[in-house]
UniProtKB/TrEMBL annotation:
Coiled coil region boundaries: none
Protein name: DNA-binding protein
InterPro entries: Cro/C1-type_HTH, DUF5753, Lambda_DNA-bd_dom_sf
Highest taxon listed in the record's lineage: Bacteria
Organism, scientific name: Streptomyces silvensis
Signal sequence residues: none
CDD domains the record matches: HTH_XRE
Length: 270
């Protein structure tokens, strides 16, 4: 994990460094903390945020005063849901990214202004703090930059029609976001399609989903509930999701028709 990715990643990286310095295995540290080696592994990789009790036990084990307990506060109050930092690490290495989004433009395709407007609404609803909103937007920019690597990953994006019809911020923000989507379609490694409302029950997904193809051709899928994300690493379980994604692409508008729809909507706000 990149320690700059999130407070949980920084906590896990520091924990791993001190454990390695003492020559302890994860199981040996776990026995001192009163938990399992699996739990230590999940914290070290950022998959599980450290609880206050866990952090206090770490401070006692390493004799670090309250350093880890203080650091855990930031990790527990991060805006990133459990499971997402681990997904981002795999996304940054994927050879192919297939995503389907409902309601809002997917993060990898958002302009910073669109993302900021989206997070400002969450702050208004007191779902997150302004600091957490900034954290989300910063991570979004880093994710997008990470996909500019060479060779670039193939990115297939299917957007529910509501993604492009939902107002978000000012007219200028929406117009710039439409331009960003149209620019995306011009890239040599991308495909953008709109799943129209008329698909109705033929739409195979009701929630957002992402499928990653890794460089070794293994598959992963990622989906979120309200409070946590689930990363499925077993290709056998991902194959049915991939098959449903292909069905979604077959039923969705072509890229040319999708571009025409976006262009028509952009004219309406000029």
């Amino acid at each position: 994990m990149d320690p700059e990715e999130s407070p949980s990643a920084r906590f896990g990286q520091r924990l791993r460094v001190l454990r390695d310095e003492r020559g302890w295995t994860q199981d040996e540290l776990a026995s001192r903390l009163g938990c399992s080696g699996t739990h230590v592994s999940a914290v070290e990789t950022g998959r599980r945020p450290p609880t206050r009790r866990f952090a206090a036990s770490v401070d006692r084990a390493f004799g670090t005063g309250d350093r880890f307990e203080r650091q855990s506060r930031a990790a527990r109050h991060t805006a990133l849901i459990e499971g997402f930092p681990e997904y981002v690490a795999h996304e940054g290495r994927a050879a192919e990214v297939r995503l389907y989004e409902v309601g809002v433009v997917p993060g990898l395709l958002q302009t910073p202004e669109y993302a900021a407007a989206l997070e400002a609404d969450a702050v208004r609803r007191q779902a997150i703090t302004s600091e957490q909103a900034d954290e989300r937007v910063d991570l979004l920019v880093r994710r997008q930059t990470g996909l500019l690597r060479s060779p670039a990953p193939l990115i297939f994006a299917v957007l529910d029609e509501g993604c492009i019809r939902r107002p978000m911020g000012t007219a200028a923000i929406i117009e710039a976001q439409f331009t960003r989507l149209l620019d995306f379609t011009e890239l040599p490694n991308t495909v953008l399609q709109v799943a129209p409302f008329s698909m109705g029950a033929r739409r195979p997904f009701s929630l957002p989903v992402t499928v990653l193809t890794m460089p070794d051709r293994s598959l992963m899928s990622y989906a979120e509930s309200t409070h946590r994300g689930h990363l499925e690493r077993e290709s056998t379980f991902v194959l049915p999701i991939l098959a449903a994604y292909h069905q979604l692409q077959a039923e969705a508008l072509s890229q040319a028709a999708s571009v025409a729809m976006i262009q028509e909507l952009r004219k309406g706000i000029s």
